[in-house]
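[09:14] KT: can someone run the structure on this one? pasting the chain below
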Amino acid sequence: MTRRGFLGSAIAATGVAATGWFAGGRLLGPGEPGRLLTSRVPLPRPYQVPLPKPPVLEPVRSDATTDYFEIIQQQADLDIVPGLRTRAWTYHGTFPGPSIVTRSGRRTVVRHRNELPQPTVVHLHGGHTPADSDGYPMDLILPAGRHSDPMTSGHTDHHPGAVRHGERDYTYPNQQRAATLWYHDHRHGFTGHAVWQGLAGFHLIHDDEEDALPLPTGPRDIPLMIADRSFAEDGSFLYPLLDPTLRTHGVQDEYMNGVLGDVILVNGAPWPVAPVSPARYRLRLLNASNARRYRLELDPQPPGGGGLVQIGSDGGLLARPIRHDALEIAPAERFDIIVDFARYRPGTRVRLVNRLGAGTTAEVMCFDITETAVRDDTYLPERLSSSAPNRDPNRATTTRSFHFQLRPDHGWTINGLAYQPGRALARPRLGDTEIWRFVSDFHHPVHVHLDPFQVLSRNNRSPGPFDAGWKDTVDVRPSEAVEILVRFTDHPGNFMLHCHNLEHEDMAMMADFVTE
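[09:31] RB: done, structure tokens below
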């Protein structure tokens, strides 16, 4: 069958998504994923608190080649809901966790110590990372002081020495371009709950190519972690666990298509306010929500439109800037954008809104433009990078297909199979270029570990407006077939392909692939 014929058949095969799919007696609709979980406390008022900036973690020591960091995973009480404290799971006591800032080619070693009540795993999302530091979902860090745990039963048969007691060192070579990465929990079956509880932080890589550009830096280079949450009566994060003891993974049936919160947090603060000068700012947007998609717009739009100027994607700088009036961002995706607040009159309040939300979830944050003029020597060059994707799909040695589907008999599956640790669905050779096809029933933000990829097509047509640049996560829409071009390099071993709707992921929409 020809490539075009295959894609046509694949799209037709997933046509059930056009009308929905029954699961447990309920119809899962074809539109936006997830179900709203309503908070049980009065919600904070929007635009009352300042935007926090995640702290930058300093290395505990450095040598000629490596910076060494230490992070304690611990519970902490946070001020989010007025009058209440939110008990969170955190990296080093904050949500988001501290940002790790490093340079391309300089090795980073991060020692994570687990002082939480449950096992954890850490994945550097977007990292070009050796298999033993990639955060394979069975490579647990047991809580400090605990040398056995019922949840580790059978977890190490495929991977001797995978479990560590109390702490683990993760080694990141950082042999990759400047990019906005993030780290988060990745434990099999419990990622959604752990990330919802606060286990996420930025990992930023800089390089000489980026430094040579006249882009905003310092206080005008701002990482923004956008995440929705809901709150219980006591102020804690509310999450619909199937088993509150955490001995059985999964969520209550009605939330199997994703958990949506009714409070939008940016860098851990509800609907915050950021004072900005009338100048250009670089905003590093990360959707760290479990399941919620956003369509982000500035309100009001600047004169002439095109207020969101994209300069980077998951894997770093684009070849050239792209102007958008709106950006659609799925879970785990990143967009680096430039906003020129000098296009507005001083004193203007500019809201960042979510056109896919309703009520409280239609607001994200706002920027208050100050009267104070600043010298702005930055500008947008016509050319950003010479390292943008330009691989030839005709040189691909293999084409593989992965069907992301809800099966009444197996739940969320890839190629009809629920996740089984150690079972590889693909064995790509290092250095070979391959075409991978992702075919969906519902919305599935598909994440590939180890190396970035280039989006080739959507349903036999050109890539979408938000597919430019190197990607590691692609939003595959209902009844859609997306083709990507990928080449894995450097690191042999066991890696992951999965849906980054974390409720889908926890309910087995994952697969191993082994690079050889």
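[09:33] KT: thanks! The helical segments are 3-13, 191-196, 208-211, 502-506.
[09:34] RB: yep, looked fine to me
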